[in-house]
């Protein structure tokens, strides 16, 4: 390993003490490596980011999502370290970082490949796209009426939804917004796409699970009341009435570094299911 990146959510390390400690640990096991530091994923998609053998991403799930999109064109392996609240996407807690770095040094790790999707707006720029690890959401403005969504799968008309919004999610994103909207939990390494309506007028409107090779096209009719495209809950783009949105699987993957003690079902039970039950009990 010659080039190692450290990316941190600056709000969670305002004094810089965590970065200094992480740098010491990395240097302990990779004495001759170059360390590149990034804050809030800025410049991760630059030439420096392209050089990285792997990236240590420190933060919560939002930090991991942002970093994954920034390095997707390089397919840089990411060691996701939780210093946030939930940390469902992270591989290890900060207290176990040294153990993780030691195992990477000893080549005792695996790469967990996660499917990503991309969204394009052909009326604006056919070549430009927005990538997402969790989901792409199309929704109405705060005080708008429901929106009409015409959905096409591989060019064939599927359905018209009247709903507050629409979630197109990856398996990784099935435990995020899509789950809150009534979608199913999908094992994260599967190759499928979920399409879930948000508060549809018809109670019969449910999630459909598509093959990952299916291409989804959506035309919106917002009746001049405003609609928005949101990428992984972080980037927001205002849409035009009657605008067409194309969504499909990306050829590249998000590569998450895992160790032999990583257990998806333990994480699912303790960080998603148990928290939901606890919230219900608190009510």
Would you spell out the secondary-structure blueprint of this structure?
Blueprint: E1 3-8, H1 17-29, E2 34-39, H2 47-50, E3 54-59, H3 61-70, E4 78-82, E5 92-93, H4 97-105, E6 110-120, E7 130-132, E8 135-140, E9 147-153, E10 156-163, E11 165-169, H5 177-180, E12 192-198, E13 208-211, E14 216-221, E15 227-231, E16 235-239, E17 244-258, H6 264-282
Parallel strand pairs: 1-2, 1-3, 3-4, 4-5
Antiparallel strand pairs: 6-7, 6-17, 8-11, 8-15, 9-10, 9-14, 11-12, 12-13, 14-17, 15-16
Helix pairs in contact: 1-4
How would you describe the overall organization of this protein?
By secondary structure, the chain is α+β, with helices and mostly antiparallel strands. It folds into two domains: 131 residues, 3-Layer(aba) Sandwich (Rossmann fold), CATH 3.40.50; 137 residues, Probable inorganic polyphosphate/atp-NAD kinase, domain 2 (Tumour Suppressor Smad4), CATH 2.60.200. It has six helices and 17 strands. It has a six-stranded antiparallel sheet with strand order 7-6-17-14-9-10, with helices on one face. The protein has a six-stranded antiparallel sheet with strand order 13-12-11-8-15-16, with no helix packed on it. Strands 2-1-3-4-5 form a five-stranded parallel sheet, with helices on both faces. The C terminus is likely disordered. It is found in: Cytoplasm.
């Amino acid at each position: 390993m010659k080039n190692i990146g450290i990316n941190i959510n600056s709000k969670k390390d305002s004094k810089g003490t965590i970065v200094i400690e992480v740098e010491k640990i990395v240097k302990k096991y990779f004495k001759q490596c170059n360390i590149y530091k990034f804050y809030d994923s800025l410049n991760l998609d630059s030439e420096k980011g392209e050089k990285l053998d792997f990236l240590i991403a420190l933060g919560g799930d939002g930090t991991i999502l942002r970093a994954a999109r920034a390095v997707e064109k390089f397919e840089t392996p990411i060691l996701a370290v939780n210093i946030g609240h939930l940390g469902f996407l992270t591989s290890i807690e900060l207290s176990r970082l040294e153990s993780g770095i030691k195992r990477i040094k000893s080549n005792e790790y695996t790469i967990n490949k996660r499917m990503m999707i991309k969204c394009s707006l052909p009326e604006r720029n056919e070549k430009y796209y927005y990538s997402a690890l969790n989901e792409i959401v199309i929704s109405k403005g705060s005080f708008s009426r429901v929106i009409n969504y015409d959905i096409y799968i591989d060019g064939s008309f599927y359905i018209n939804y009247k709903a507050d919004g629409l979630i197109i999610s990856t398996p990784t994103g099935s435990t995020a917004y899509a789950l809150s909207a009534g979608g199913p939990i999908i094992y994260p390494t599967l190759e499928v796409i979920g399409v879930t309506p948000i508060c549809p007028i018809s109670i019969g409107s449910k999630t459909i699970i598509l093959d990952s090779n299916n291409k989804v096209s959506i035309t919106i009719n917002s009746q001049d009341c405003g609609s928005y495209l949101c990428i992984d809950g972080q980037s927001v783009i205002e849409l035009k009435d009657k605008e067409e949105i194309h969504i499909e699987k990306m050829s590249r993957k998000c590569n998450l570094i895992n160790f032999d003690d990583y257990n998806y079902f333990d994480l699912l039970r303790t960080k998603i299911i148990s928290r939901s039950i606890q919230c219900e009990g608190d009510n």
